[in-house]
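protein under study:
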Amino acid sequence: MATEITMPQLGLTMTEGTVSSWLKQEGDTVKKGDEIVEIETDKISNVVEAHEDGVLLKIVAQEGDTLPVKGVLGYIGQPGESVGEPAAQAAPAAPAPTTPAPAAPAAPAQAGKKRIVVIGAGPGGYVTAIKAAQLGADVSIVENDKVGGTCLNVGCIPTKALIHASSLYEAVINDAEKVGVSFTGVSVDWGKAQQFKKSIVNRLVGGVEGLLKANGVKKYVGKGIVKDAHTVQVGDQLIPADDIILAVGSEPVHLRFPGADLPGVIDSTGALALDKIPASLVIIGGGVIGIEFASMFASVGTKCTIVEALPNILPPIDKEIVGIVQADLEKRGITILTSAKVESISQAAGGLEVHMDYKGQKQSVQGEKVIMAVGRRAMTAGIGLEELGVAMNRGKIVTDDHFQTNIPSIYAIGDCNGKLMLAHAASAQGVAAVEYILTGKGEYHAETVPSCIYLNPEVASVGMKEEQLIEKGIAYKAGKFPLSGNGKTLIENGGKGIIKILADTKYGQVLGVHMYGPRVTDLIAACALAIRLEATVDELITTVWAHPTVGEAIGEAALDVFQNPIHWPPKKK
């Protein structure tokens, strides 16, 4: 007699599941291990596999139907075999006993496939999971919050959405009249700007959910804990794995000093959620996050003060570019205090007052809100790594060049390994790790990872800085082209910006490119490719750059390394 296909119980608390898609149709021949039907619960999606060879004789539960655990989904048997009436649907599972029960195993793995479990569904994790599935692995992904991680939900994407809104406002206020466009009654509706931000975030998060599903990645909602080298626990479920990839990301650092926990002291997540534009802000930290927030809020009229403990803002960026950026920020009314160490925060009539040691002198500055933007730290605590003996360095996971830890079946990518805290770096590391696991080869070229800062205008860089070349004793020459000599930049922002190329003196190989100007965060991709291909400045020069574009200034800067630009007065000999 035909065999029942029933709704599996994927955990102790699961009582029912919904049929999302039949992967086989009535009359199809199936083999043991074939995926037959996809089911989902409020926590996960999974597939039911055939437990024997035969034919799918009858589909009982239609797509969209919800059945209790052990409810009949359909029947498998031999051609012509009779199908009995569906058995009575099982009652919901009884509550778990008082004595803790052992964790339930996850759904069976797909036969013959390598099992990979990814913990974290940010840009590192979800890209890793999709790539692993594309390469033929049986992939599960674990996420304690929304897919997309910090970047999509409370980082890169929402920040850029609000920067876009504030930049439009600033352009209308400052530039529209110059080009003959007149407006009356221009204002910022911050509530609508927040709605725009949310719509972009929701669309992208939904897109990632769809991509994971389309690639057959099983999703588990909850905190992933590494129980041993081949098992991840999520709630009461145990997920077996041949390899585990940690993509657990990072969180904002919150400094500890008197007043740091006062109401109105917020981190980057809180700054993105503000329901109105503050009259004034004190931003502690002059790194990328702090500078972007200062530029964004200054565009809509907020008085911003940046307090940075180091001698310079934007430490990862070329110093010459930083000097130009800082001068432009100060022209926009942003106060920048460097070598300023915050000692405490107190309440004040206008909101909060930040007390600091500023170059050996006691000083204070007030703001309606204070944004703590002093960096991020890896979220590696409480997930079983210390108990398992995974090598760590100040909270970051130690890996080799293949992102493999000291435990061969465990890998770590993205912010949690501390190599480079950028979303695109995490994605690239994840792809390289998966390719190494599944093919024995995986390439990651750290020298081609660009850094981008979304100011007005933008900053972008890739490769080595002058300070690094000097430190390593590499002989080099620098070529520069001010964007005041570029027609497209003159149109867009009056000619503000510069492109700088660093090349070695022997071969002219491009070693670093640093930009400040309109849309340079898009242009930097061409320069990353140049570094990846070990291109020379001659190859940049002989490339034909479209006119009029900002990009043609790359060719001009390349000319300046050993010759003279066409559209700039010659160097004095």
Remarks:
- The radius of gyration is 28 Å.
